[in-house]
Specification:
The protein is mostly helical. Helices cover 87% and strands 0% of the residues. It contains seven helices and no strands. The chain has helices at residues 2-31, 34-53, 60-80, 84-97, 100-110, 113-139, 141-156. The N and C termini lie far apart (68 Å).
Length: 159
């Protein structure tokens, strides 16, 4: 019994600290307005999909159906990202990645004017980053197609 009490006394502070880190991480997700960030990510991806679809010769009649299908698919995918159980997983990632002191510092920063500004502008910055990445991928599309053709030829040797 003595050993059991010693184990409880020894482990309890660590368990409390981990629980506190998790709560701090959950607070961070609220401050970061994670739902809005998920919505922005979904919107950015849908915009990219629409631009990519324009590159294909899709019959006008089918475009509406494709858009509806993509909208429903994205709605389903991103709704799962907002579930409380998934948000707990996000919080756990932050709790695992940062110390309690770091989480407190991050929270303090996000509560400042500069931190609030960062959080407010971050989604549009990430949208811009996505557009730049998409442009860069489009600029190398011919080379990527050529690499794919060469790769397919190499795979033919194994048939």
């Amino acid at each position: 019994m003595k050993y059991f009490l010693l184990i409880i006394i020894f482990i309890s502070p660590f368990t409390l600290a981990e629980g506190n880190k998790f709560q701090l991480a959950k607070e961070l997700l609220v401050l970061m307005n994670m739902d809005a960030q998920i919505e922005t990510m979904a919107s950015t991806i849908r915009d990219m999909q629409s631009r990519q679809l324009q590159q294909y010769d899709i019959p006008v009649e089918a475009q509406h159906e494709i858009e509806n299908h993509l909208n429903e698919t994205m709605k389903l995918i991103f709704s799962t990202f907002k579930k409380p159980s998934v948000k707990d997983k996000y919080a756990q990632l932050y709790a695992d990645a940062f110390s309690e002191a770091e989480l407190k510092g991050i929270l303090e920063f996000y509560k400042t004017g500069a931190g609030k500004s960062f959080l407010e502008k971050f989604p549009s910055v990430m949208t811009g980053v996505s557009r730049i990445a998409e442009e860069q991928l489009a600029s190398i599309h011919p080379q990527m197609k050529q690499l794919d053709v060469e790769f397919q030829k190499k795979l033919e040797m194994y048939k």
